[in-house]
Write the structure tokens for this entry.
Amino acid sequence: MTSMKKNTYFLIIGAIALCVLFSIIRASELHSPNLAIIIFLIGVVIAYISRGFVDDTLEDELTHQITEKAALRTLQIALVFTTATAIGMIVFSINPLPPPFEHHFPRPDRIIGNMGLTQLFLPVFLLFIYTGFRQYYAHKFGYSDSFEEQD
Amino acid sequence: MIPLKNRIKVFRALHDLSQEALARQVGVTRQTILAIEKGRYDPSLLLAYKIARFFGVTIEDIFLYDEEESPKKLPF
């Protein structure tokens, strides 16, 4: 295969996303995260390689500008959010919650799960913020207008 | 909205070109050509040169700077 259409590439990305989703379900049934992690990493590699075969222009200077502005705003929000979370955690570590909530956060028997959830929450949260900013800047620069004007 | 106006649409019509065809020729997406035509985005100097060279004219023939129109201030 030497070339690929943009839509084919997006179909491959969708298929990879489905595979990752099913692998997470299967891995949770098997109580083994290895399968999901390996499939996710393979999926990232396949997506990266597939991108090189796409004929159509996927990115140009306008998409770069939209990405740049959205990424900057997302980074600023991430800094504020993570700093606020860190301040809260420091306060809890200095002065734990009073009874009967003293074992609610963080629960020692669920520390790995809590860390995993926190790590999962942050990228998902940032992904939503990033997508929102992308939409905003795409609209601002007229990139989201999809129809050619007719005379 | 922005002081840079352009006549890409006119030149496209003269050459009987679609936005998609022009975009392919200058190596950008169709939406970028649309955004430039609508005056929502100022192209880089390199892209402006590519477009002008493709039509066989100078940049000034396609892009016009309108000093009277001031940019609209957005919150971000």
Remarks:
- The radius of gyration of chain B is 12 Å.
- The helical segments of chain B are 8-14, 19-26, 30-37, 45-55, 59-62.
